[in-house]
Amino acid sequence: MTYSICVRERGETGYRFGVAAAARVPAVGSVCPHVADRGAVAVAGVADRTLGDRCLSALADGRRLADVLDGVDDAGAASRQLHGVGIESTGAHTGDDCRAAAGHREGDGYTVAGTSMTDDGVLDALEQGFRENERDAPLVYRLLTALAAGERAGGDGRDLPVGSAAAVVSTAAEPEPLYHDLRVDASETPVADLRETYRQAKRGYEAAVDRYQTENS
């Protein structure tokens, strides 16, 4: 029910991890994205939030994500999609019973995946939208740009009136501004609304910082 991207990138003092996802159902941000300071995971299909948390716990213990996925004993695996990145690994699984079009890809420091997509062109767009992005831009901005590219390529192919979108970024070593964890839970245009939420949140955060610095100078 979701198209999503997971990313790992090295910052000046550590790694950043992020997930962005969208779907033509409400509240994808409550079940799909899972981010911690050693990895990022997205869960789709017949979603199970505990599975994402279990994967992040395994990554925190130093295990490779591909090994974690191989070791998951899950009766619902055939109807579930799971993909993500760790510090030194990527991994992805798309169950045989996931709604078509469904698939995933692994790249250098990222994974993309989707179920109920219009076609595989959505994965092409997610990859291209991320790789061709501004490298000096905040990771959350680049995730949203990739998500918008996937939306333009067709996104979730189901004809449903209300959708949702989310983007989350976590880093172990560097503080993130307050607009690093954003959700639109119910909207006819969730990806566009999430990008506008980012723009407004960034503007509001920068205004608040400027006011604080002025008052304390």
* Spatial separation of the terminal alpha carbons: 50 Å
Q: Average the pLDDT over all residues and give the rounded result.
A: 90
Beta percentage is 25-35%
Q: Helicity range of the residues?
A: 25-40%
Could you say how many structural domains there are in total? 1
Please identify which CATH superfamily we are dealing with.
Answer: Aminohydrolase, N-terminal nucleophile (Ntn) domain
Largest sheet: 6 strands, antiparallel
> What is the CATH topology descriptor?
Glutamine Phosphoribosylpyrophosphate, subunit 1, domain 1
Shape label: globular
Provide the structure class. alpha+beta
How is the largest sheet built, in terms of strand order?
A: 7-8-1-2-9-10
At CATH level 2, the architecture is 4-Layer Sandwich
**Low confidence ranges:** none
CATH class (first level) name: Alpha Beta
Detailed description of the structure:
The N and C termini lie far apart (50 Å). A 6-stranded antiparallel beta sheet has the order 7-8-1-2-9-10, with helices on one face. The chain has a 4-stranded antiparallel beta sheet with strand order 3-4-5-6, covered by helices on one side. It has 217 residues and is an alpha+beta fold. The chain has 5 helices and 10 strands. It has a single domain, classed as Aminohydrolase, N-terminal nucleophile (Ntn) domain (Glutamine Phosphoribosylpyrophosphate, subunit 1, domain 1, 4-Layer Sandwich), CATH 3.60.20.10. The chain is globular.
